[in-house]
Structures
1.
Amino acid sequence: MSLLDLWHSSPEQLTGKHVQQLIAFAGAGRLMDESQCSAEFRAFLARVSTSSLKTYADHCLGEPFQDSGLALQDVVNEIGARLGAVVSRGRYRGTTKHVGYDGLWQFATLGNAIIVEVKTTDAYRIDLTTLATYRKRLVDDGTITESASSILLVVGRQDTGDLEAQIRGSRHAWDIRIISVGALLSLLETKEELEDPRIVQQIHSILVPREFTKLDEIANILFSAAQDIRQEVEVESGIALGDSDIDDDGDGETNKPSNGTVKTPKFVPMAFHEDCAARVQMVLGEPLVKRSRGSFSSPDDGTRLICSVSREHDPDSYPNYWFSFHPHQQEFLKATSRAYLALGCGSSERVLLMPFAEFEPLLEGMWITHRPDRSYWHLVIHRRGEKYELRRRKGEENVDVTKYLLSATPQR
């Protein structure tokens, strides 16, 4: 049975397997250029969690085997794809007819192309002129431009002092940057916990050579990430209303305080997005890979999901749930016909799964918060017994959404 067949039919059999064992299941069991084994291994990597990618990278670096460097190249390229790059995977072994890069990452957010070279160790000097030649050949054939391209060395070790000195002393110093595999994974994990695409663009910019004498750009990334999490706290608390007039408990009173102030959240946001996505994955019958805190898509990006979660407010009297929906999420879902919105109501045991084509027309009647830096819709769900109702602005009809509730015990 092939690696992908095992993943689809009995994924538990692959749990805890060393990456070398996984490669043995794929094709002929050896990573070769343009082989079934490499195609299947790459397709497998596109389906697994980021934590699994980290484990496989650790295997390649901590327990080297015959093809460990080639496997690490595939893992790093998958990280690049999840960071948001369009990735052209390079060859394992160079030839006179092919440019010998390990990966070519192109970020639409930056308009920049990055030639990636993966090294398991920096114990040996790297021929920087060879890497510069790869770049020149890609410029000459029109694949990239010199002014909007650079080189990124991805190395297994974090102690890269000798390599850094080699680059600083070369004529390629302004074209090359270094990052460890661990740091690259940390960037991906940070991206997956955020939602604002503007912050993701800032993360992409870290990979491009630039002068960091002034540290404002790095400080802005940290500040923006904190703001992104804070905004989720406010919305999920049902307090970030701004100019809204939500009557959340049906008593005729709006949730906006009479003095115009906003209540301070007393808890951190719920975080069961992935559990909800796992249930949706079973229902749809295809893998969903995490792209950000609340966005998921199939490996081919043909199916897309936005997942939003809320704790249960007033559970003993009038259960209700608060969510936000952003314009960038709307654009994410509009890019495909197979698009869904999942609302986790209190836990992953209560998930409403709505086709986006049926949900989008309802946005016109939703409450909206407008702020200088962003605007977003408020989604308010009320539950009476097992009946779920989407509340809308005064004058708009509320919508019974009970039919979208997933069954309690979905089967694989």
2.
Amino acid sequence: MAEIRMPQLGESVTEGTITKWFKAVGDHVAEDEVLFEVSTDKVDSEVPSPVSGYVAEIRVPEGETAEVGAVLAVVTDAPVGGGQPDAQAPASTETSAPTLPAPPASTPPVSDRPAAAPPVPEPQAEPAEATTAGAGVPAAAEPAPAGPDGTPRPADATRGRLMSPLVRQLVHDYGLDVTQITPTGPGGRITRADVEREINARGATRRVARPAPTTTPAAPPVGQDAPPRRAAPAPRSGTGDTVEPLNNIRRRTAEHMVASKSTSPHAYTVVEVDYENVERVRRAHRDEWKATEGFSLTYLPFVARAVIDALAEFPHINATVGDGELIVHNYVNLAIAVDLDFEGLLAPVIHEADDLRLRAIARAINDLATRARTKKLSVDDITGGTFTLSNSGSFGSYLVLPIINQPQVAILSTDGVSRKPVVVTAEDGTEAIAIHSVGLLAMSWDHRAFDGAYAAAFLAAVKEVIETRDWEAEL
């Protein structure tokens, strides 16, 4: 028998939320086969099983949070015989009620009946536990509390139901009747997946609204009364709408981006870059590179290499803002924004990228992007960045103004490159029109750290490296 514990997912991470089990009780799992997915406030990761065997218990269901080192599941060498273990068996939809583990003698049993059944004990803390000796006496029925918009919330129906606080909040927010939700968690527990399945099945049902933010009208002219304040209407789902709860990475992204806009006074600087010097090298080595490295040679590693060199000349851009101070870093940890199939965004980090040349940078970018999309990143892979590159150019974007990746002071967007007519100057000073590969580089930066002249000089240095370096020798 082996206990599967919550792994240490990074130095600063103390807990994680189980978002998905890939195996059920009774299933066989091979060593290094993905067993579950865990979400932290930094990254979602798929965790492989350290042993081979049969899943005998799942102690932390989907949607629950556990501390690092906590036992999540038990794997045994022998198959789980005679059905699944009592406490961990999934709730059956063919029987009247799931079987719960017997509580201690000092704790009265918890009812799992719906609200329409006889009243259940009123809990003191968690709904699944009674904490006083007299709690076994049925309490007088109370009216269901109203939601923020006055709609009754099915609080009574949730009493005695096994679910996490997060799942309970979802039930309340969407005005769901828990008696209509089929539990699939251990011991009859309602999981987040169960609730989301019910939400999707009832997509046309009006969601219980949260308090709407109020708007502040402009001050009226002198001598006139101010108009009454009105709250902006809360969005509601209607016929034909599909309600999709935000996943963990969308919620975290929202939190970080809103915090960044409220923390940093964002300013923007944009330059146009002639990539023809890079394009000649890419065309000459494209096929050989793909055959040797196994991935395409894009513009991104060239830009990354130019940025690293320019940061050495403009170190205040490779910095973070502290408490009344600017912390200038003497190394470059280059973060690369990676799209996760339109489901979210991560910025894994190439640590000490200033020690790498072009080919090594390209390999590092490809490795991080691959591991990000297959959920193989650790927390350490996405922390410690000092400057970020956001690459929307692969979609042909013209100009993107990204939001700063806190606590950094700048982020650079590499936009689409296209063939355009440009003026070229020969060595003798004569000018001519030629067709070159041209694109924009746009930088969002924190005005607390430096001013516009410094930002413009930095981008001019990046532009010069891209346009004039001997990339053939670099490659």
3.
Amino acid sequence: MGMEMDKSTRLVPIDQFRGFAILLMILSNFLMGVAGLPAWMKHARDVGLTAVDLVAPFFIFAIALAYPLSWRRRLQREGATRAAEHFFERYMAIAGIGFIMTTIWVPVEDTSWGEPWGVLQAIGAAGLVTLAVIAFKPIWRCLLGLAMLGTYQYLLDNYWLENVRGASHGGIRGALSWGAMLILGTALAGLYHAGGKRRWLFPLAGAACMAAGAAMAPWVPISKERVSASYVLVSLGASALVFAGFDFASERPRFRSSVLSAWGRNPLLLYILHFFLLGVFVLPVVPWWYAEAPWWLTIAQATALAGVLSAIALFLQKKNWYFSL
């Protein structure tokens, strides 16, 4: 990972949405170890859906929005072979960082996890799966993503259920479903990037994804633990609609957030840094300080965590630096 000057023209709504997603990921990680919080502020246990269950899909969708653009730029500048090598190295590095962070953090956080697997490993694996089809047209990516999702659901129902439920983010088997989510996200992104009248199809397609996932729910339960097909479609549709809100707001300067844009420019660095800052709250073996903290202390700590990372993000933005793989 290197530090570079950001000389490219950035898409403000994508930066802001990415920043929003990574901020929510960090806050949900902080709240995960706090007892006494309402159920909607934590992941659903097996079947069900909470607001927190949508956080990882938001970030997956932020990647999906940028993936085709980044691929085309690399393809035009360096050719197919070098572009593929770059994306392969990028997502292998993300997965590798995830394995390192999981090895450090899980013994402190939760020794009940089965596989050494976390969100960065899921993102890395999804990125590698998407690389195999990113050169195809959006319609073909959509069909291949749906086929992959259907295959995963069949394997989940018949062979994988207990293994997937026993692993964070579905483990290595769940990576097939996260990969399908990212592939389908790049297909939706194709509508957004098409511009003109076709862009209006983007929120409609997002709403259709949500409706399809909800319609499947009686037969295919919505579950982040299972990374079920219904969960993928509902969360993908929700991500598209939330991003459409950011896109709408970005056209009105008074609704733009420089803080979220700053977060969106250095998401991986901020995510890595937050693990070290979490140690301030998690490592002291004092129940009232973190696990059993009163609500006012939890709010103060979460605000401090977000504030420190926001200051770092704004400093990097002021210097026009970003860290990339």
